[in-house]
Structures are given as structure tokens and as C-alpha cells.
């Protein structure tokens, strides 16, 4: 089979398994092996489509497939299916990387049509079309255009399969550098040109099309590795991409913008008198003043949907807290919004509903700054709205949206937690002493499940002021009969000796591996790593974010400063009474902090257990595919 | 001396019930008590030094046993013992010099020959005598007295000097020794009482304009240190970690605000988040161990680790009475104190769960391992933790380390 191996194509792509394994083995879905060059590519044996293992792949520094294939494409029009390299697949319209059966019919063409290993579907297909135009019938060419159709229709078919695959944790991940991408692109263009020349005037139209699509696709090629959904759907427009780029967050020391925002605001916030200088860029409001005011306005607010309003009030009062709970509450409110929605005359559903959701979101932000999980969920909802086909009737669109949101809640939050629990429990052994900080829902589920499995372990609950969430967790754990010890974060180095593993929750995981979580998590992780205790972070993948954060100061949330001066339940601690208005005395109630990735041994997500260095991989893969849920 | 015994018992009781808090107060009480013990101790004609040492040791053992965690007690007792030995030694050498050089050495001349003020003629002899009797000390190096480097180590044990002191004029030395010791102890009392001011004097050298300083716990040394810099018109910010569950940070913040320092109170959990914007961490210590480790208020370890991560200077302020000649072994457990769990958890709320076995403890103190980059400042200036052993050799005599 190695008879025709091209010496230049020998270099295998480097394959690294980072911990993603498909649970179901899928037979090689390539329809028929190409007689000429299938074996010339060792890749095929390990490529995701051909193997049950779908490892994370790092492309070789020199993209040999792209070097060789133009030649081959020019020489012989038939191309091996194996040449469908992972780098090109990444941007395939349906975003799935496993060759799902639903795609094969389409893929049978697509596969044979991407010889140039180009990074973008349009390029690959069109150039291939140019190259193979002699052998491929014209009808096939139209299939290409179908692939490039607005994804509203095509996605639905494949999306489910993608989802089912993914629920089995069979999400394969690949790595790719933009440099390789660019080179591939160049080669593709060259190939297309060469092919066009070789074909003479046979397919001038297609060639021009290919070039056009190449140039169009060239722009997103670079940022696509960072930007999430930019290159997902076939040929996203420039406008879409702009919208998808993460907005710079509102900086509250920018006075003109603050004034503008205030004019629009529903919630009347009174600014704290005694603001901490270092955190001018964050909103610092008096707490406890807005709630009565808002409650009285409950029946007067016309534009606000009551469900959203209710959720907002719950955010302010702190009745709903925790990333998952807040996100689910918001999504359920949005479901009600969708249910009660009717398109006003002269407006389209897509635009009007997006605007509505945006206004609701800004109301929720006024109540409490968004968490990353909520931001991702909102992005999902908006994307779903934008992608609704215009042809759909209103009731259909609403039903589709509602079920989409429902599915997001079920699969991204509830199912994800179950998977995390399954993974994390495997790390708990008899005799372990587990330390946890605060009250992370995922960690709590892990502990309870491990207890149900009759594992014998002890839990150290570490807590900190002012929220003392650990006490709630402690209560729940004790109710189930788990042996617990409770202490404050200051004493952590006293108890760290006996700890065997540290389980932490996270509000968000950023793409540099930083874990953004309840304040104090960084301290716990730091002390644990100083004592050489492994730190395991449980976090659902929908909370991952492509942003990068270096410290806990640039982006954070400030809680009620008065919670610090008053010690609940300790009347003897009253040193600071009456000093709260002193200009020299400030109280800083930080809500989150950023844990550097070096303190973290492992992040447990619904995609498996990964080191913090693999976060960007998940971010990229996940962000692409979560739009297709 | 029943009155001394009763005050000793009273003090022991106070220590046992933790009525006296803070190492400075404890150290002062201890040294004052020891002074009265010494002054009331009837000394025999022979072996008066060892009699004094025995008396001080007996009281010291009681005090240390009353609160072994309060290391300042043991430190002060050792300091006093060291003073007695030193005084005895200097008297002996002076007597020897007097015997050798002069046939008749009267009391007046001996009085003059105390401390550094030796008559010039006998200085060389005295130095030689001292160098044979005691290990080279930093003090002697600084004084510039000639000293042969090859002097073998001879312990300044009581027996060694006693035999020589016999030959000295007994009646004068008996009175003189006690007098000198009390004089020295008085100096020690002044030193302990004035340690805050002496440390605070150096503040201006360490704090610059617009500095951001993190501190935790409540220490008078830190308070005076910061205020001294403030008085010198330096403007800087102070972040105070509140130090749950005792909330000593609140106390410190209150005092700082009262003195007009811009203060921000943060939770203990926010220490890591804030440390990246902090220029210096300044804490007060409970004790400084012989290996350079610092025992400080709970939470110190966390702050020190964070400071190390961000390469922030970590300054420990401690008076010399906090310098402990012991090497910590498993100090988290052995040199620690657990306070009532009720400070952390409301028993009423959890009374139904307690039989499930909630154990909660709030260790009062914790230990920083000496691997960190922190510094030690006492009234003589700044020192690196690795230098602690040398200071200890200066302050304490090797015989007293184990009491």
C-alpha cells in the first residue's frame, strides 16, 4: 500500500491524545477507498473519521498534504478521501468533526473534494471542483452550493447527530495553527489556478468562484482560531463576525458612557460614596436601595416582561446565585418571553426579538453583572434567533426557539453536570480527604454521588466571609451523613496536611487556563499546590470563555461593602460601627478571583478531564458547535 | 519570699487563662516578675550566680508550662538567664585581671571596670580572658577587641566560672552581681517597652510615597510602624485583611483610620486577588523561630505564599523578645492553639448535625515555613531569615536553650 508514497508526504502529522476518546467506535465512513492515493497517507488510519479514537491532533509544522496534493490534484483528478485533512474539516459547515452518518452522503462528495487541505470549506470544495471538474458531473457542483446554503436548514439535520455524538463525549478535537492554515490556503489557490490552467477554458467560472471564495475566506482565516463562531457556518458575513466579537466590557470610569447608560437604566442605582480607587472601572453601588424601588415599579413597567423582571429582582436580592442557577433562571425567563412574544407589525421576528432580548439583558446587567455562563447562553439564544429561517411561521419559530433553549438547559447544564460527576467520582477513592471551597454545585453533586456509591471519604469544607456559602453546603452534606470538617480559609494551611484532593468549582474558565471563580479559590489552589495536593476544578464547558485574564482586578464584581463591616452573628465585633462613612475607610468586597493555571492539576468538564492548557482547544471546538445545539 | 511566690502564681494563672494577650505585654510582665524574683533572692556567698540561675529557672519553668504557646515567656526567661551568666562572667574576668595585674584591687576600681569601660591597661588581658571563656560574639566583633580565631569553644557554664570566682573578693562581688543583673534586666525592660518606637523609627526607610501595603491581623508594632511613616508625610494606602474569625483586622483598620491613614478592609479570601497590586506585605509576628520561620496570626501562610508568587517583599516586624531560640518541629500542631469552634459556626444552627461528627476548629496561629522570602526587622535593623541563628547566639546562651 505504500507503493506510491510520495517522499514528501511521509511526514506524519503529530498526533497527541489529550484525553478525548470516542466512546463509540465508528466504522470508516469513507465510502470507497481511492485506488490511487489512499494509502499514501498514513493519516487516514488515525484520522478521526477512520478510527474510534479521536485524539487531539497537532498538525505538523509543514503541511505536507497541502504540498503534495496540488500536484496530485493537477495530475490526477481523483483524490484520496484521506486527504480530507482535519484542518479543513474544522470549518466544515455542520461543524461536526466525527463523520456522522448523516453527513456521509454529502461528505462522500465533500471528502473527495477537499484535496488541498484548505482551511475553509468554500476553498476546498471549489478548488476541488476546479480540479475535478472533468470527472465530477455538474450536478455535484450544485451540491457544493447547497452545502454553502444558509445553515438553518442543513444544520437541523446534522445538528442532532452532532449532539448525540457529543453527549457520548465523542467530541474529537484538533489543533491547528493559523500559519498552517494560511499556507494551506495559498496552496489551495495555487492548486486552483494550476487546475484552471490545466483544464484550459473548461471551467473558468468555477475557478473565479473559487478565487472569490478564497479571498473572502482569507479574512476570517486568521482570527478564526480565537473567534468562536466566526468561521462556523459556511461563509459568515463580515457583519456577523463583528457582532460575534466579544464586546469590550463597560468601564465605569468612563464618565460619558456611564451617564449614557444611566439614562437608559431601569434600575436606579445610587453610587457608593466611598469607592475603592483601584476599582473605579467597576460599578460600585449602594446595595439594598434598589429593591424596594423596583418592587413598586413591578406593575408599571410596560416594556419589561414580568418573568425577566422577576429574575432581575431575584438577582438583586441574591435569591438566585451561582452560575448555573442564574443561567437557568435567565433562560427560563427567556423561554417565557418567547412564548408570549408576537411580532409587531412591520417588523421581522429575527430583528425585533433580538432587540428585545438585548434590552432584557441590559436590564439584567443593571441588576447584577452577567456571569460568563450567562453571556455564553445569551450568545447562544441570540444566535438561534438570528439563524431562524425567515420562511418559518411565527408559531414554528417560537416553538423552535423554546425547544432550543430547553435543550441548552438540558444538555449544556444538566447533562453536563451529570457527566462531570461521572468523571470526578472516578477520582475519589476510599480513605480520601477531600477539600472543597465555598459551595459549588458541581462539587456538591460529585460528593453526594460518591457518597451514594458508598465510597468512604471525609470532606473539609473551607469557607470565607462574608457569604459563608460553605455553611449551606456543610448542612446539606451532613444531612446525607457525610463526615465533614468546617473551617475558615485562614486556617487552610493548618488542615492542608491531611488533604488528598481539592475539588473546586468555577464561574468560568478562560482560555489561558485561568479559573475565574469565587474569591478565595485562588488562595485555596495556591496553598494546595504548595502542599503538593492535586487541585481538580469542576466546570461545565459552556462556562468556558475565549477571553484571557491576568489578574483579579481588571474584571471583577464588587459585592455589598457593608457586608464586610458587619459580622453576622457576632455582636462583639463592632469595631467598625459608625466608621462606614469615614472617607479614609473603604470596604472592598470582591466577588471573584482568577486562579493562575499553574495551580490547577486538572479541569473536569463534560468533555472529559483536561489539563488547563487544553482549555483553548475546548473553547474553540465548543464555541463552534454550541451554536448548533 | 512569699510575696514573690504569690505574684508568680497569679501570673501563671493569668497565662493559663489567656488573660494576657500579646507577646509584648507577656514579655514585660515576665521580665518584671523575674526582676523581683532576682531582687528578693537571697544569694549565698558561694555560687551566687548559680543560685540566681536556679531561682530564675524554677520560676521560668512554671511560666513556660502555663502557656507553652506564648514563646515570649521562654524567650525572656532565657534572656534573663543569659544576662546573669554574662554578668557573672564579666565580673569573674575582671576579678581575674585584677588579681593578676594588681595586688590589691579595691571595689571602686572593679566598679569602673564594668562593661566596656575597662581601664586601658587591663583591656588586653580582659579580652584575652573573655575570649577563652566564651564563644566569639558579634558584640565583641563590633567592639573591635582583638580575638584569635582559633579560640576553642568553651562553654560559659556556671561551674567553670564558679571555681574562678572563688578566688575573687567575695563580699564585693556578691553585692555587685545582683546589682549588675538587675541593672541589665532594667535595660531589658526598657528595650521591650520601647521596641515599637525603635522599629517604627525605621519606617521611613521602607515606605515610600504612594505605596500600597497589605497587612493582616492586629499588631501594635505594625500600627506604630505605619503611623510613623504617615507622620513623616508619606502618603500611602493600607489594605487590611480582616482576619476572621477574630477580626483583628477590623481593630487595626479602626486605629489606622483614627490616625488618618487611607485604609481598605478586604476579606481574607481576597488576599490573593489583591496581592498583585500590593508593593509590600508588612505583618507583625507572634514569634520568630531559630530557623527563620515566623509564627504569625492565622492566614500568614496564605499571604506569604501569595507574596512569594508575585515577588512582593514580605516584611515581618518583631521586637527582640519575639526571637525564639527553638527550632520548630511540626509547629502547626505543637505551637498552635485552637480556639472555640463557636466563633466559626453557630452551635444553635448546627446542633442537630453535631452528632454526625462535625469537627470544626479555628487554629489561632499558624506557621510560615522558612522557605519563603521574608525579612526580619528588629530594632537593630533588618535581617534575613537565614541570619536568625546568629542573632540567637547573641541573645541567648547555649545552656538555656532547653529549659
TrEMBL record, chain A:
One of its GO terms (molecular function) is translation initiation factor activity. Its main location: cytoplasm. Component of the translation initiation factor 2B (eIF2B) complex which is a heterodecamer of two sets of five different subunits: alpha, beta, gamma, delta and epsilon. Subunits alpha, beta and delta comprise a regulatory subcomplex and subunits epsilon and gamma comprise a catalytic subcomplex. Within the complex, the hexameric regulatory complex resides at the center, with the two heterodimeric catalytic subcomplexes bound on opposite sides. Pfam families: IF-2B. Keywords: Cytoplasm, Initiation factor, Protein biosynthesis. Belongs to the eIF-2B alpha/beta/delta subunits family. This is Translation initiation factor eIF2B subunit delta. GO terms for cellular component: cytosol. Transmembrane segments: none annotated. It comes from Eutrema salsugineum. Residues 1-15, 172-185, 237-257 have a biased composition (Basic and acidic residues). Residues 37-56, 73-87, 186-203, 212-227 have a biased composition (Low complexity). Residues 130-146, 160-169 have a biased composition (Polar residues). Residues 1-257 are annotated as: Disordered. It is found in: Cytoplasm, Cytosol.
TrEMBL record, chain B:
GO terms for cellular component: cytoplasmic stress granule; cytosol; eukaryotic translation initiation factor 2B complex. The keyword Transmembrane helix does not apply. Keywords: Cytoplasm, Initiation factor, Protein biosynthesis. Residues 138-154 have a biased composition (Polar residues). Belongs to the eIF-2B alpha/beta/delta subunits family. Component of the translation initiation factor 2B (eIF2B) complex which is a heterodecamer of two sets of five different subunits: alpha, beta, gamma, delta and epsilon. Subunits alpha, beta and delta comprise a regulatory subcomplex and subunits epsilon and gamma comprise a catalytic subcomplex. Within the complex, the hexameric regulatory complex resides at the center, with the two heterodimeric catalytic subcomplexes bound on opposite sides. This is Translation initiation factor eIF2B subunit beta. It comes from Eutrema salsugineum.
Amino acid at each position: 500500500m505504500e507503493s506510491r508514497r510520495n517522499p514528501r508526504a511521509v511526514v506524519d502529522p503529530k498526533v497527541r491524545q489529550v484525553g478525548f476518546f470516542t466512546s463509540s467506535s465508528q466504522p470508516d465512513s469513507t465510502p470507497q477507498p481511492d485506488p490511487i492515493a489512499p494509502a499514501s497517507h498514513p493519516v487516514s488510519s488515525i484520522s478521526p473519521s477512520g478510527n474510534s479514537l479521536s485524539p487531539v491532533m497537532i498538525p505538523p509544522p509543514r503541511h505536507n498534504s497541502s504540498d503534495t496534493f496540488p500536484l496530485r490534484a493537477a495530475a490526477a483528478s481523483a483524490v484520496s478521501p484521506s486527504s480530507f485533512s482535519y484542518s479543513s474539516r474544522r470549518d466544515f459547515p455542520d461543524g461536526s468533526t466525527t463523520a456522522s452518518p448523516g453527513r456521509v452522503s454529502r461528505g462522500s462528495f465533500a471528502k473527495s473534494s477537499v484535496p488541498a487541505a484548505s482551511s475553509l470549506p468554500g476553498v476546498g470544495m471549489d478548488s476541488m471542483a476546479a480540479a475535478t471538474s472533468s470527472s465530477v458531473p455538474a450536478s455535484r457542483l450544485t451540491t457544493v452550493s447547497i452545502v454553502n446554503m444558509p445553515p438553518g436548514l442543513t444544520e437541523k439535520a446534522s445538528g442532532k447527530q452532532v449532539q448525540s455524538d457529543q453527549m457520548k463525549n465523542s467530541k474529537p478535537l484538533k489543533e491547528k495553527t493559523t500559519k498552517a492554515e494560511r499556507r494551506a490556503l495559498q496552496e489551495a489557490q495555487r492548486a486552483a489556478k494550476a487546475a484552471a490552467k490545466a483544464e484550459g477554458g473548461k471551467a473558468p467560472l468555477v475557478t473565479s468562484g473559487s478565487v472569490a471564495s478564497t479571498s473572502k475566506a482569507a479574512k476570517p482565516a486568521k482570527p478564526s482560531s480565537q473567534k468562536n463562531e466566526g468561521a462556523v457556518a459556511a461563509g459568515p458575513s463580515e457583519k456577523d463576525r463583528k457582532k460575534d466579537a466579544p464586546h469590550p466590557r463597560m468601564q465605569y470610569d468612563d464618565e460619558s458612557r456611564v451617564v449614557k447608560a444611566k439614562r437608559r437604566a431601569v434600575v436606579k442605582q445610587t453610587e457608593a460614596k466611598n469607592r475603592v480607587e483601584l476599582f473605579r472601572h467597576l460599578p460600585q453601588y449602594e446595595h439594598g436601595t434598589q429593591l424596594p424601588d423596583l418592587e413598586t415599579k413591578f406593575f408599571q413597567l410596560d416594556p419589561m416582561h414580568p418573568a425577566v423582571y422577576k429574575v432581575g429582582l431575584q438577582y438583586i436580592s441574591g435569591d438566585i446565585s451561582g452560575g448555573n442557577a442564574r443561567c437557568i433562571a435567565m433562560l427560563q425567563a427567556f423561554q417565557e418571553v418567547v412564548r408570549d412574544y408576537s411580532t409587531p407589525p412591520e417588523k421581522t421576528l429575527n430583528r425585533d426579538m433580538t432587540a428585545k432580548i438585548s434590552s432584557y439583558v441590559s436590564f439584567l446587567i443593571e441588576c447584577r453583572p452577567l456571569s460568563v455562563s450567562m453571556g455564553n447562553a445569551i450568545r447562544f439564544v441570540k444566535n438561534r434567533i438570528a439563524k431562524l429561517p425567515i420562511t418559518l411561521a411565527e408559531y414554528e419559530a417560537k416553538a423552535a426557539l423554546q425547544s432550543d433553549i430547553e435543550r441548552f438547559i438540558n444538555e449544556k447544564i444538566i447533562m453536563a453536570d451529570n457527566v462531570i460527576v461521572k468523571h470526578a467520582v472516578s477520582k475519589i477513592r476510599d480513605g480520601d480527604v477531600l477539600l472543597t471551597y465555598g459551595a459549588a454545585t458541581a462539587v456538591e453533586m460529585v460528593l453526594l454521588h460518591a457518597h451514594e456509591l458508598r465510597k468512604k471519604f471525609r470532606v473539609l469544607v473551607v469557607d470565607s466571609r462574608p457569604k459563608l456559602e460553605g455553611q449551606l453546603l456543610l448542612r446539606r452534606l451532613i444531612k446525607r451523613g457525610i463526615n465533614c470538617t468546617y473551617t475558615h480559609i485562614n486556617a487552610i494551611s493548618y488542615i492542608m496536611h491531611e488533604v488528598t484532593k481539592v475539588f473546586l468549582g468555577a464561574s468560568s474558565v478562560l482560555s489561558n487556563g485561568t479559573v475565574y471563580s469565587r474569591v478565595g479559590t485562588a488562595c485555596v489552589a495556591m496553598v494546595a499546590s504548595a502542599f503538593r495536593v492535586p487541585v481538580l476544578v469542576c466546570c461545565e464547558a459552556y462556562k468556558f470563555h475565549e477571553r484571557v485574564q491576568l489578574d483579579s482586578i481588571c474584571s471583577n464584581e464588587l459585592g455589598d461593602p457593608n457586608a464586610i463591616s458587619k459580622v453576622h452573628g457576632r455582636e462583639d465585633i463592632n469595631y467598625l460601627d459608625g466608621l462606614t462613612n469615614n472617607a479614609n475607610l473603604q470596604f472592598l468586597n470582591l466577588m471573584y478571583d482568577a486562579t493562575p493555571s499553574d495551580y490547577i492539576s486538572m479541569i473536569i468538564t463534560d468533555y472529559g478531564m483536561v489539563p488547563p492548557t487544553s482549555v483553548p482547544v475546548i473553547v474553540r471546538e465548543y464555541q463552534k458547535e454550541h451554536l448548533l445545539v | 519570699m512569699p510575696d514573690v511566690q504569690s505574684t508568680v502564681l497569679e501570673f501563671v494563672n493569668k497565662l493559663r487563662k489567656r488573660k494576657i494577650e500579646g507577646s509584648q505585654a507577656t514579655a514585660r510582665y515576665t521580665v518584671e516578675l523575674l526582676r523581683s524574683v532576682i531582687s528578693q533572692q537571697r544569694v549565698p556567698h558561694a555560687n551566687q550566680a548559680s543560685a540566681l540561675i536556679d531561682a530564675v529557672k524554677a520560676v521560668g519553668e512554671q511560666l513556660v508550662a502555663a502557656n507553652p504557646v506564648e514563646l515570649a515567656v521562654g524567650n525572656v526567661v532565657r534572656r534573663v538567664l543569659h544576662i546573669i551568666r554574662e554578668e557573672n562572667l564579666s565580673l569573674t574576668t575582671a576579678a581575674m585581671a585584677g588579681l593578676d595585674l594588681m595586688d590589691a584591687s579595691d571595689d571602686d576600681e572593679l566598679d569602673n571596670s564594668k562593661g566596656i569601660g575597662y581601664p586601658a591597661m587591663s583591656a588586653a588581658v580582659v579580652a584575652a580572658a573573655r575570649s577563652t571563656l566564651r564563644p566569639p560574639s558579634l558584640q565583641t566583633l563590633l567592639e573591635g577587641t582583638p580575638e584569635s580565631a582559633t579560640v576553642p569553644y568553651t562553654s560559659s557554664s556556671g561551674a567553670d566560672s564558679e571555681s574562678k570566682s572563688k578566688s575573687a573578693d567575695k563580699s564585693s562581688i556578691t553585692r555587685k552581681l545582683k546589682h549588675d543583673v538587675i541593672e541589665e534586666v532594667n535595660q531589658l525592660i526598657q528595650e521591650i517597652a520601647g521596641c515599637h518606637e525603635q522599629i517604627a523609627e525605621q519606617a521611613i526607610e521602607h515606605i515610600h510615597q504612594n505605596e500600597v501595603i497589605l497587612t493582616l491581623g492586629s499588631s501594635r508594632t505594625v500600627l506604630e510602624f505605619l503611623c510613623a511613616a504617615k507622620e513623616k508625610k508619606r502618603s500611602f494606602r493600607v489594605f487590611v485583611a480582616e482576619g476572621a474569625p477574630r477580626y483583628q483586622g477590623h481593630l487595626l483598620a479602626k486605629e489606622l483610620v483614627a490616625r488618618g491613614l487611607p485604609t481598605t478592609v478586604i476579606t481574607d479570601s481576597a488576599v490573593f486577588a489583591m496581592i498583585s497590586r500590593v508593593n509590600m506585605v508588612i505583618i507583625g509576628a507572634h514569634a520568630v523561630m531559630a530557623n527563620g520561620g515566623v509564627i504569625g496570626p492565622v492566614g500568614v501562610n496564605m499571604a506569604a505564599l501569595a507574596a512569594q508568587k508575585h515577588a512582593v517583599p514580605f516584611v515581618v516586624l518583631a521586637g527582640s523578645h519575639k526571637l525564639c531560640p527553638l527550632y520548630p518541629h511540626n509547629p502547626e500542631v505543637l505551637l498552635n492553639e485552637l480556639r472555640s469552634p463557636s466563633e466559626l459556626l453557630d452551635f444553635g444552627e448546627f446542633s442537630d448535625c453535631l452528632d454526625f461528627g462535625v469537627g470544626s476548629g479555628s487554629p489561632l496561629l499558624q506557621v510560615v515555613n522558612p522557605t519563603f522570602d521574608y525579612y526580619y526587622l528588629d530594632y537593630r535593623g533588618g535581617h534575613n531569615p537565614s541570619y536568625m541563628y546568629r542573632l540567637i547566639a547573641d541573645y541567648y546562651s547555649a545552656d538555656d536553650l532547653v529549659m
